[in-house]
Amino acid sequence: MKVVGVLILVLAVGFPSGNASSEMLSPLSMSANDSRVRWEGLAIVVNRQNPTSNISLAQLRALFLGERKWWSKRHRVVLSAMRRGTPERASVLRIVYKMDERDLNNYFLYQVFKGDAPFPPVILRTPADVRKFVGTTPGAVGYLRASDVDDSVKVVRVNGLLPDDDGYPMRLRARLP
Q1: 29 domain residue, yes or no
Q2: What is the DSSP letter of 98?
Q3: What value does the mean pLDDT take over residues 135-161?
Q4: 3-state SS string over 124-176?
Q5: Is the pTM above the cut of 0.70?
Q6: What share of the chain is helix, strand, coil (3-state, %, to 5)?
Q7: With CB atoms 3.0 to 4.6 Å apart as the test, which of 43, 64, 75, 104 could cross-link to 163 if both were Cys?
Q8: What is the predicted pLDDT for the residue at 175?
Q9: For the chain, what is the domain count?
Q10: Terminal CA-CA length for the chain
């Protein structure tokens, strides 16, 4: 009986059925034009007056963790973030911070305890709020779905790539039409 159970388990693991196999694909292994799942880039946006046009993922992480506090033109980095529970925030937590919500809260609390408290991100409710805040705040940086970007903010390349480029490191599922 154990042999039959093991055989069924091996077959079930070896041959996923239905949509299960497409659920397991990551955005990095799929092209932007894949018809099974639609992905869109998560743009890093800054104030239009910011001269920065390209940033590495490691530099972006340093900005968001408060390790880098100043832009090149002596403007303080002002972080903005979407509210908890949004897909945009979940993607940034996973890709940029490499933490979950609890670990991020503990990180900022520990920084306060050490006396090296970075300014925590300004939490904003909607993409329109992010655009308005970043567009009117010198030194501000935030993130938006590529489809939510307008002319009020400037999109920064990440690792030399824009959100619609193949290989862009920050993707999330596109909204349903």
Answers
A1: no
A2: -
A3: 97
A4: ECCHHHHHHHHHHCCCEEEEEEHHHCCCCCEEEEECCECCCCCCCCCEEECCC
A5: yes
A6: 35, 20, 45
A7: 43
A8: 87
A9: 1
A10: 49
